[in-house]
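Running this now, will post back.
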Amino acid sequence: MTRHIRLIAVTMLAATLAGCAGAAVPRPAQPSARPAPPPTAPRITQNNSLVGHDANAALSLFGKPRLDVREGMGRKLQFAGSPCILDIYYYAPKQGAEPIATYVDARTPDGRDANVDSCITALRR
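Update: finished.
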C-alpha cells in the first residue's frame, strides 16, 4: 500500500512538472536599431545678459563655478554666493558648434525663486 501511494505521488509530481515544461514562447524579433536623430538645442525663451553667450563669458564674470556638470550634450555651470545661486545651462545650437547659454535659473540659498538679473548683478566679482 505504501508503495502504491508513493507511485501515485511520484506520478502526480511528474505530471505537475511536465505542465511547466511546455513549448517555449517565441520572442518577437528585435527591431533594427535606428540611428538617433541629431540633437537639437532647446529654444531660447529668456532674455538676460548670459543667454546666447558661451561659458567663458560667465567664467569671466563670476570666476570659478561651484559646479561644472556635463551630461550628454549639455553643460551646467553653477555659481553661488550669500544672496543667490545661479544655474546656467549650455547647449550647442547645432552639432559641432560651441555651446551657448540657453537657460538661466536663480534661487535663494533656501530654495525660493530669485530674480535672474538681480542674481547676476550680486554675484559679479
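The first helix runs from residue 2 to 20. More later if anyone needs it.
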